UniProtKB/TrEMBL annotation, chains A, B:
Its EC number is 3.7.1.3. Pathway: Cofactor biosynthesis; NAD(+) biosynthesis; quinolinate from L-kynurenine: step 2/3; Amino-acid degradation; L-kynurenine degradation; L-alanine and anthranilate from L-kynurenine: step 1/1. Belongs to the kynureninase family. This is Kynureninase. Pyridoxal 5'-phosphate binds at T117, S118, F146, P147, T148, D149, T188, D217, H220, Y242, W272, T298. InterPro entries: Kynureninase, PyrdxlP-dep_Trfase, PyrdxlP-dep_Trfase_major, PyrdxlP-dep_Trfase_small. Its cofactor is pyridoxal 5'-phosphate. The gene is kynU. The keyword Hydrolase applies. Catalyzes the cleavage of L-kynurenine (L-Kyn) and L-3-hydroxykynurenine (L-3OHKyn) into anthranilic acid (AA) and 3-hydroxyanthranilic acid (3-OHAA), respectively. It comes from Deinococcus aerolatus.
Length: 421, 421
């Protein structure tokens, strides 16, 4: 048997199934709906549906909205509702924030939930630029940062008269660009195309030594592996509710403001739901304590309730086990793909080094768009990302090593039928 | 029989029931869930649940998200879904905008849906201030405008270094303050406390004569009566999805940018979902055509789908009939309340003049908070608004004249038990 054939032998699958049998997170898969006949490798675009969500939505719509109506804004709207689906919509953003905080190494009062990631980036950029010394005019970011991060910075800078420079540099040159011109860094920890993970702690420490504020985008981090914002001394962060947090399409985003900045950072998007006493209906904005001031308008209760229910999946999860399994899954995928990569024009762009890897694996392929289309038709749901990236996301809460094997079998089928056998 | 007794005689109720029998909108009530034993007079805070919404939510969560997963972002994700609940989440904001446009006298491409009203106010303030002549530094608003409108203007002004003045004047002095210092007006058509309706067309025309841009907040207008933004020559507007549009708690808001401004107005909150080609993943923001550029981050699909389903209620509604019924309901309420107002310290603060009335009636009462608490306990759900306002909202889609009678009976019970009989 050649190496290639051995890879797809039953014995390989058996070994992987043995790993799955020892997986301490294996039981979490039962908490998700995963369609028949699909290997879903796009949880880093849209996390799968937690089974608790439809019932919660039905309850919030039918009972809280339909029966209790406006009484649901307050805690005592009804006594007939269990604690697991409490009303008190006023405090729903805070309850969700408290569930996200331990996933990112934050205190609950440092986290606010609501609005989109893009809008939250705008809030934090505005707050951080206002705090930075006036002479520092550079917003430092990666050339390959996710586009909305760049666009929001462009828009804010235009609003401020173009007084800042958005400096985009390659990821491996970031540290060299941490100079006294730089007001802040706006960096995404895990690159959405390559899956490369930056050294959040190291870059944060280097930035602080230069008096530079850090805004971390945790879109592909939160819920994928443990993040320790306070351990790293990070200043600000945002993240996504609908990727590894499984909150549903367009779920509310979260933001983090370190406790030490909460008196000096300003919520320029100051809406009534961030007021210290919204129903006082005062004419002047007085910020609520802590990160709550960054909640702006009326919370999107339906979407927020779905996220709230989805986060309960994490209640009994050991984040160290989550990370270990994620790395085991991506290691397995890279290993199984190696002989295919040797026979086809596949270039691994995800780092081998664990410290530099998120929870996805990506390859360049000259016909990436067509290859992904064929994979999707076979039920292997990954992502094409322009210009030539095949992206495969691994979600340790609901993937097994056997899923990885099935995915590679599907990729092999597409590539071998299209190319040399 | 005294006037007072006659008012509550069965004959009065019979006359009202005859009106209800002739009501061309009476059948719309069947499309809503209205709890037993409640007269719900707070649809101007949170519209009642349209019966189509829970099924839509179940479909979007269970099928579009749970089964189709990321494929639902595109139009051809599945062929098994009927047109009434199409996928194509990418275009969902535009489909919802097209349903709102005819309610406010706008073209579909002038409307964008997403984010909260507060965030949309910020977008429009930023766009309008950027367009205004540099010498004009006054943002003119009402002293009693809804607080979040004031707060968002305060926050934006602080972000811009305090270079503007937020000038708050009484509603009846607005026209006199339309001077060449004024960059824009930020006005809510219907006052959330008094229910007084401003002359949108007249004030817009007066503002335009002075070179002043107008931003209209239609929170208590859209879905309550016909609005004609283009007929009035309005520049910008925002509105609420969860009051008279019945989109659910915290439903996405809408904004309007007149077609003539779309090339010059800038979307400073420029997110990837407002890009002309989001999946090009370009490094520079290129705005999408029309108002779509004001869609910022990933749409909140669950909340947006609820709003989408809720708006179908309006598909067969004649807005002229809607307005006529609204005025008939509020006239009836004021008439039935007149003898109570003569015996108790109730002061009507809603205008008698139809042209100056929205779809609510409010009274001042020195114990307004306690009176409303007792009303709520009896199932008459109105609102207390600080400092002394009893607010009763009327929704012509689901209220009958008999409901008005029942509401006044309840109010009578609370007041007569507490005061002179």
């Amino acid at each position: 048997m050649t190496v290639f054939d051995r890879l797809f032998a039953d014995s390989t699958l058996s070994q992987l199934q043995e790993k799955d049998a020892r997986d301490p997170l294996a039981h979490k898969r039962q908490e998700f709906k995963l369609p028949q006949g699909v290997v879903y490798l796009d949880g880093n675009s849209l996390g799968a549906l937690p089974l608790s969500v439809p019932a919660r939505l039905a309850h919030v719509a039918g009972e809280q909205w339909g029966e209790q109506l406006i009484r649901s804004w307050m805690a005592n709207g009804s006594t007939s509702v269990g604690a697991e689906a409490a009303q008190d919509w006023m405090n729903l953003p805070d309850r969700v924030a408290a569930k996200i905080a331990p996933l990112i190494g934050a205190h609950a009062h440092e986290v606010a939930v609501g609005d989109s990631t893009s809008v939250n980036i705008f809030k934090l950029l505005a707050a951080a630029l206002h705090m930075a010394p006036p002479g520092r005019r550079v917003i430092l970011t990666e050339a390959d940062n996710f586009p909305t991060d760049l666009y929001m910075a462009q828009g804010l800078n235009a609003l401020l008269g173009g007084r800042y420079e958005l400096r985009t540099v390659p990821g491996d040159e970031l540290e060299a660009h941490l100079t006294d011109e730089v007001a802040l860094t706006l960096l995404t920890e895990v690159d959405y195309r390559t899956g490369r993970k930056l050294d959040l702690a190291g870059l944060t420490a280097a930035a602080r030594r230069q008096g530079i504020l850090t805004i971390w985008d945790l879109a592909h981090s939160a819920g994928a592996f443990p993040v320790d914002l306070n351990g790293a001394g990070a200043d600000f962060a945002v993240g996504c509710g609908y990727k590894f947090l499984n909150g549903g399409p367009g779920a509310p985003s979260f933001l983090f403001v370190a406790a030490r900045h909460q008196d000096s950072a300003r919520a320029f998007l100051s809406g009534w739901m961030g007021h210290a006493d919204p129903f006082e209906m005062a004419r002047e904005f007085t910020p609520a304590p802590g990160a709550r001031r960054y909640v702006v308008g009326t919370p999107a209760v339906l979407s927020l309730s779905a996220l709230d229910a989805a986060l309960d999946v994490f209640a009994d999860v050991d984040l160290g086990q989550l990370r270990a399994k994620s790395l085991s899954l991506t290691d397995t995928f890279i290993e199984l793909m190696t002989p295919l990569a040797a026979r086809h024009p596949l270039t691994l762009v995800t780092p081998h080094n664990h410290d530099e890897r998120g929870s996805q694996v990506s390859y360049q392929h000259p016909q990436a768009r067509e290859v992904m289309q064929q994979l999707i038709e076979r039920g292997i749901l990954g992502d094409f990302r322009t210009p030539d990236i095949l992206r495969f996301g691994f979600t340790p809460l609901y993937h097994s090593h056997a899923d990885v094997w099935r995915a590679v079998q599907g990729i092999r089928g597409v590539l071998e039928e299209a190319g040399p056998a």
